Amino acid sequence: MAKLDPFAKRRQRVRTKLRARGLRRPRLSVHRSGRHIYAQIIDDVAGHTVAAASTLEKDARATTGAPPGASRPNAISARRQRRSSSAMLV
């Protein structure tokens, strides 16, 4: 068996934990790069992304106080998820 790179290990670990929980609720996935934050709400049962937001979007850039766009993608993706369905996040 080949040695897994860190991204493959993380993916395998997340998928294993999701299978253990039964995949009942959508999950929030957040990726932070050096410059931007990306957030997705993923429905693993249906196999698609319910909502997504990032600091690349115009409405996420208009912030005050915290670093530019620090928590906006999560709030925006949660708002979009609420519009599309009433399911809770993991």
Commentary on this structure:
- The chain has 90 residues and is of the alpha+beta class.
- The chain has a domain at 23-84: Nucleotidyltransferase, domain 5, CATH 3.30.420.
- The chain is built from 3 helices and 3 strands; from the N terminus they run αβββαα.
- It has helices spanning 6-21, 58-61, 72-84, and strands at 27-32, 37-43, 48-54.
- A 3-stranded antiparallel beta sheet has the order 1-2-3, with helices on one face.
- The termini are far apart.
Helical proportion, percent range: 25-40%
Tell me, what is the CATH class of the domain at 23-84? Alpha Beta
Shape: flat
Number of helices: 3
Strand adjacency order, main sheet: 1-2-3
Indicate the low-confidence ranges by residue numbers: none
Beta-strand percentage range:
15-25%
What is the CA–CA distance across the termini?
32 Å
CATH topology of the domain at 23-84: Nucleotidyltransferase, domain 5
SSE order: HEEEHH
Q: Which second-level CATH architecture of the domain at 23-84 applies?
A: 2-Layer Sandwich
Annotation, overall tally of beta strands = 3
Return the average pLDDT rounded to an integer: 76
Structural class: alpha+beta
Q: How does the major sheet shape up?
A: 3 strands, antiparallel
Radius of gyration: 15 Å
